[in-house]
Amino acid sequence: MTNLLILAQIIVAASVAYVWIFRYDVIIKEFKQFGLSDLTRTFVGAAKVSLATLLVAGIWFPALVAIPAILMGLFMVAAQYFHFKIKNPFIKHLPSLVLLILCAFIALVSMNII
């Protein structure tokens, strides 16, 4: 189970880092579609990159994992809400849905619930 947990942490962290660092132009477009401000986008980006960093650090310091996983999961719930709000096709919902499931898995395993 430990290897799956670490793999999930790396997948979530790498995905978030990739989107928020290398595909920032897509983020700008999506936040405009969602009707959210630049300040909100900046806050969300900083928070997600910080949480992703904590998930990676959690590989060596497991006590760091549960809270960042839960908070990242809440960001993914918000992403789902905004995708539904603007009636995006399901394919646009899929990345944040997969990350939400992985965050739930990470949180549950790190808290020894499963």
Automatic annotation (TrEMBL):
Coiled coil: none annotated. The chain crosses the membrane at residues 6-22, 67-84, 96-113. Its main location: membrane. It is found in: Membrane. Keywords: Membrane, Transmembrane, Transmembrane helix. Pfam families: DoxX_2. This is DoxX family protein. It comes from Kaistella gelatinilytica. It is a multi-pass membrane protein.
